[in-house]
Amino acid sequence: MFLPILFIFSLLPFSHSAVQDFCVGDLALPDTPAGYPCKKPAKVTVNDFVYSALGVAGNTSNLIKAAVTPAFVTQFPGLNGLGLSLARLDLAVDGVVPMHTHPGASEVLFVLEGTICAGFISSTDNVVYFQALNKGDIMIFPQGLLHFQINSGEGVAIAIVSFSSPSPGLQITDFALFGNNLPTELVVKTTFLDEAQVKKLKGVLGGTG
Amino acid sequence: MFLPILFIFSLLPFSHSAVQDFCVGDLALPDTPAGYPCKKPAKVTVNDFVYSALGVAGNTSNLIKAAVTPAFVTQFPGLNGLGLSLARLDLAVDGVVPMHTHPGASEVLFVLEGTICAGFISSTDNVVYFQALNKGDIMIFPQGLLHFQINSGEGVAIAIVSFSSPSPGLQITDFALFGNNLPTELVVKTTFLDEAQVKKLKGVLGGTG
Amino acid sequence: MFLPILFIFSLLPFSHSAVQDFCVGDLALPDTPAGYPCKKPAKVTVNDFVYSALGVAGNTSNLIKAAVTPAFVTQFPGLNGLGLSLARLDLAVDGVVPMHTHPGASEVLFVLEGTICAGFISSTDNVVYFQALNKGDIMIFPQGLLHFQINSGEGVAIAIVSFSSPSPGLQITDFALFGNNLPTELVVKTTFLDEAQVKKLKGVLGGTG
Amino acid sequence: MFLPILFIFSLLPFSHSAVQDFCVGDLALPDTPAGYPCKKPAKVTVNDFVYSALGVAGNTSNLIKAAVTPAFVTQFPGLNGLGLSLARLDLAVDGVVPMHTHPGASEVLFVLEGTICAGFISSTDNVVYFQALNKGDIMIFPQGLLHFQINSGEGVAIAIVSFSSPSPGLQITDFALFGNNLPTELVVKTTFLDEAQVKKLKGVLGGTG
Amino acid sequence: MFLPILFIFSLLPFSHSAVQDFCVGDLALPDTPAGYPCKKPAKVTVNDFVYSALGVAGNTSNLIKAAVTPAFVTQFPGLNGLGLSLARLDLAVDGVVPMHTHPGASEVLFVLEGTICAGFISSTDNVVYFQALNKGDIMIFPQGLLHFQINSGEGVAIAIVSFSSPSPGLQITDFALFGNNLPTELVVKTTFLDEAQVKKLKGVLGGTG
Amino acid sequence: MFLPILFIFSLLPFSHSAVQDFCVGDLALPDTPAGYPCKKPAKVTVNDFVYSALGVAGNTSNLIKAAVTPAFVTQFPGLNGLGLSLARLDLAVDGVVPMHTHPGASEVLFVLEGTICAGFISSTDNVVYFQALNKGDIMIFPQGLLHFQINSGEGVAIAIVSFSSPSPGLQITDFALFGNNLPTELVVKTTFLDEAQVKKLKGVLGGTG
Q: Three-class SS of residue C169?
């Protein structure tokens, strides 16, 4: 009574379905606009679907007293093609995630601990939406819009952020403007900032030119 | 020096951009395949982007000793059109989220507290992927595949789950098979379960026929 | 008068358009989240677009007296990237396609011969939609929802089913629960079925553990 | 033991899930780029998912001795948002579906009866792919490319065609060129056809100007 | 010989196809995540598909000596649902389009007249890509990344820019940071700019707080 | 003060973000349904984002007195995955772009110089939308619909056309019908054209059979 069942199995596209069920990214192959090519289903194990790095606090001993620990497709290839990813945000006292955007995804932040003042700026006549968030609150940051998070509490703050893409990207405005070789003259022309201000921040952020 | 700037503002499609930045769902209007129509930008406030219900434990005084508290588009309309949502999972001791699928989204679970034995079954020759997850671990459940979560620890377990759609849907296999008026004869024919077993579970889950 | 035309040809991206027109899958290369890489246009022939296996009845000498003959991307690589696929369903007398889902596609069934009782269960408060279908009737099964087909007529029944993806996937609930090494204890815990019932079906379906 | 279950039900977004499971089109409301707004879930019945018109032969008493009977979203609103549709093709002896395109979908044709010579023309250096198809054969016609079907057998031919969109559209080249008020002079200029030929076909197809 | 043709017409979903061919936006109805509901096909004329405002130079008598004249969905509703839009860029001598992003689209710029120094900053370790563009050159600005355009020539410069969405959005960093009521203290905290600099630019750009 | 910043850099997925920001196509690798695999970010330069061929008039010394100079993904791989492309259209006096479709994209045309009579035919009861366009006018041609452009002025006409895909494809009806080896008998049967007319155009356009 057993073989007949296997028989219908052999009529079903199982060798393929594995790829249709999921597509664990093979980071050794070139990426595509839709994500990485898939690891062979036969080589996929439960370890491709479990990741533990977000359980550990990021190191906040840095200028911004903050750390973002990503679980994006390059850290966690099981997310490849599935349309979402996570990250952990640690904010020491006075920590701040400076103005930034995620060019490739919308974000929802869940406060695990502490108090976070978070906000985003709409491209519509520049309306600002911000609020102090407490443990258990969630807040939305729509794709591509400038937003920030500040530890507005007494102690450390921790959040889990979730994104609508396996590779949301991250562009921190200050690093983009002052942390590279974009000539000071061009920064001044395109931001209206004073030259002295630009040079000062290039100094802090390692920019040249 | 101020008016000239406004002048270029007036050349930009601001009245529309608000809608392009985000589309807070107006649940009073009929849904569409892409989500709900958008609330008028002028009526949108920061409250449309912040939600607090996930900060409170769900009531686990039920048969499965578990509760799912969703922040899907119908609870949190700010997610409309943004391609993601969250939920909180509370598992009392011995709590279980029975075999289920999300027809509309992939899921990533983050363990906030306790120990959870979680797994999913691939449609590919039925390979089972499951593991005990501890605080800080995350696990992927690909779209549409049967999966489950069990509290395998001593105390309560809590998780935040994130989905790749504002309305992932939820189909708990037992409720679908035994919690409605699907005739016992059809359940037996399509599941190979014994009639007594089907009737027993229909009794527990409120099914008829 | 002939060369000048060829001249404008040479200005058009023909070498590429072939790939834009269609992308016959090269199954020897790793899949991607969007499908398989494309076979070289120069090697594509009409045979890549024609498939004959659905003209032959599947073998229904098995436990469920049914056979599904797929024309998914792995059988018919011409479908790669085109967003649809077909399959043939053969149901002997008393044949049944047990409760199952397609994680990756919606389905429309067209009855070629016989009478089929088909239905699906919505994830919404478990509403069941089912009906007896006669020759020429078509029925929709939305993506990811549990559904079934039963030969409810005197003779054989045949249907052509069409899917909204080249790789819809197929997860038959019984095979997923009882046809693998998922420990009996976990099946019991996540389905509320009696242990004896689980062991009985594991015996029938080749499950272990 | 029954109420507690309902309790967890009340925590789940059921009122919405119905819409997420499917979105039966309300044709009385204006369409959107993603399809029609959804009929209220409470008013949806199994009849919204079953359609019988393809069981009846189309009337082939016309110039082309052919009839296309569509089950697109406007005939069968249950398909709204689901990404596929069907149609029935009837070809009397010598019947032909003239050169046409579907601007919005790829197509797969399944021969139910008779013999059909079918083909399409790739936009790539105009390669023609055509073949005689017999009962049970399926053939792919990629989105937007010119294709045709001719009854090349002794008797009638019937096919079921499946599309990758609920509204594939249909543009029959002859009707587009000769069945409207596009001035003869413009048709001649843009097709290189002789004026007499254009006028002759405008006469047959009801064109003016 | 004429009526029979009309007969097959009546079998085709023409009343719907209009909507499937295009979906001219009805801006009086609420937007949706996929765009505006469609204007009734019967009311659509060629005027819905033709727009002339880009033929006129924008007014560059403003602080940035630049003007952007959009043909986005709100100005040109015929683009609704079609996945692209255009805009005209006028740069007087010394004109500049300051650092900005388009949250919803990638951009390609075509130089009609003059010389434009344009560039963007990748979110990848902040690499800057910029170059002087002459008449006839085109340049890509990927979605969501900071970019700028400066008139680097002797005379006026004009460009036509094309976007991959009917509503690309526009967020000019300076206006977002200094042109609204975002408290100076928050701007300082999230940008590392000196308070004096922030206040100075708020003064210029009409910001408060 | 500098190292700490780099430290948080090292926590961010920069090696990947490059690919997420853009995916310059590597045309040496096989295409996929979503586009070409990405060139290694480290090898990408500003030259991958700038293209100059549209600054030069195409050669219109051909039968149609017209030339299309594409900047599609195969000419300009920087467009890969970004959802848009451009082309330049040159029309000598009496030049015409014959009836054609773009199977993969909608189009917007911007008139740079001269006067162009352009139109498209909807698949809806064959409504024709056409108009004479002057310098600065833009016109929409929805995806997959037959359309044409004619130089209706005294001098040359030039246009920049923008598409909603990096590979829109191009199928010129005459070349598809008369420029290949599609047997005359099949052309006659599927177009109702007179055999003499078909043979005449096959002669002009290099068709055989």
A: coil
Closest CA to A136 of A175, A99, A106, A110: A110
| Residue ranges of chain E assigned to CATH 2.60.120.10 | 41-169
User: Is residue F150 within a helix (H) or strand (E), and if so which, with residue range?
Assistant: strand F147-151
pLDDT in tens, E107-163: 999 999 999 999 999 987 789 999 999 999 999 999 999 999 999 999 999 999 999
Q: Tell me D69's DSSP state.
A: E
Q: Give the integer Cα–Cα distance in Å for C50 and B37.
A: 42
ipTM: 0.91
A15-44: pLDDT as tens digits: 333 346 999 999 999 999 999 999 998 999
- Report how far residue B127's alpha carbon sits from residue F126's, in angstroms, rounded to the nearest whole number: 53
What does the alpha-carbon distance between residue B6 and residue E209 come to, in Å, rounded to a whole number? 19
Question: How far separated are the first and last CA of chain A, in Å rounded?
Answer: 77
Q: Do D160 and C160 touch (CB under 8 A)?
A: yes
Residue E147, annotated ligand binder?
yes
Backbone angles phi, psi at B111, to 5 degrees: -80, 115
Average pLDDT, chain C: 91
Please indicate whether, in this complex, the C-beta atoms of B74 and D35 are within 8 angstroms of each other: no
Contact (CB<8Å) C19/F34: no
CB of B208 closer than 8 Å to CB of B179: no
Beta strands A171-172 and A128-133 are unpaired
Nearest 5°: CA angle at A57, between A56 and A62?
Answer: 145
Average pLDDT of the residues of chain A: 91
Check contact D-A (3+ Cβ pairs < 8 Å): no
Q: Give chain B's largest Cα–Cα span.
A: 83
Distance in angstroms between the alpha carbons of the first and the last residue of chain E: 77
Instruction: Give Cα B164 to chain centroid, integer Å.
Output: 10
State yes or no: C107 annotated in a binding site.
Answer: yes
User: Which are the contacts of E23, defined by CB distance < 8 A and separation ≥ 6?
Assistant: D31, D32, D33, E35, E36, E37, E38, E39, E80, E81
Please state, in angstroms and as integers, the Cα–Cα distance from residue F60 to each residue in C13, D113, D190, following that order: 17, 50, 16
Bridge partners (DSSP) listed for residue F66: F91
**Average pLDDT for residues F152-172, to the nearest whole number?**
97
How many of the other CB atoms lie within 10 Å of CB of A43?
A: 9
Burial-class residue E160 by CB neighbours within 10 Å (0-12, 13-18, 19+): buried
Residue C200: which of D49, D193, F158, B193 has the closest Cα?
A: B193
For residue F42, give every residue at least 6 positions away whose Cβ sits within 8 Å of its Cβ, in sequence order, or none. Answer: none
Pairs of CB atoms within 8 A across C/F: 88
Q: Alpha carbon of C108 to those of B163, C120, C164, D160, E35: distances in Å?
A: 27, 12, 9, 12, 28
Name the architecture of domain A41-169: Sandwich (2.60)
Please provide residue A140's backbone torsions phi and psi, each rounded to the nearest 5 degrees. -95, 140
Q: H-helix or E-strand containing D178?
A: helix D173-178
Q: Residue F192 in contact with residue D176, Cβ under 8 Å? A: no
Environment class of residue D184 by beta-carbon count within 10 Å: exposed (0-12), middle (13-18) or buried (19+)?
middle
Tokens (6 digits) for D26: 């309300």
Six-digit token pair at D97?
């579906």
Helix/strand/coil for F159 = strand
Interface test with B, best of A40, A129, A135 (most B CBs within 10 A): A129
Q: State the Cα–Cα distance between residues B2 and D102, nearest whole angstrom.
A: 53
- For C7-60, strand residue ranges (E) read 50-51
Q: Identify the CA nearest to F77 among candidates F18, F27, F3, F129.
A: F27
Edge-to-edge strands of the sheet including E128-133?
E128-133, E116-121, E147-151, E96-101, E171-172
State the DSSP code for D73.
Answer: T
Interface test with C, best of A2, A15, A17, A165 (most C CBs within 10 A): A17
